[in-house]
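Something for you to look into today, if you have time. Could you write out one complete protein record for me, on any chain you like? The space below this message is yours for that.
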Amino acid sequence: MNGFRNKVIIETDGKLMSGRDVAIAAMLGAEEFGFATAPLVTMGCVMMRVCNLDTCPVGIATQNSELRKRFAGKPEYVVNFMRFIAEELREYMEKLDVKSVDELVGRTDFLQQINIPESGRSGKVDLSRIINNPYIKEAGKICYNKKNVYDFELEKAIDEKTLIKKFITALENGEKRSVVIDVINTDRAVGTLLGAEITRKTSQ
């Protein structure tokens, strides 16, 4: 390995519905897990797929005051659901004799492909390149290094060097301000840190 894996956190999402899904995602290398659909359903979502039309019938994805009155979800519903996810994940970890999620990350040796010849084209899918991890002996060591945090040198970013210094004071004083800066192809997130600072200032 070139050491790059220890500098990033791998997150997976996409229809995670159970503790088993989380366990499999971790075995495939994920360290963080994004939930969306399932928690939405616990809040009352009926999957009408009209989120962009402002006509959500249960008042979740809408700014219509009349529709929002129909919203019956509570934070406790999502909390309860996530507790069930964690409980099921612990059950799988116990079966595998794994004490922490970190120990589960990258353990593709726990996975086995089930071949069903009569399943048509899906029966011809070859997952060997995913399941046969050549670094399996290092699986517990290649996750994100929490002790040796990678230095992204944000102080050298355009936002820190120029934008924040010029705009935050102007924002506090209610002044208009413009600036001309040179941006090159390695400046991949110009304005992001400035936007975060503006949000902090205006949300207080």
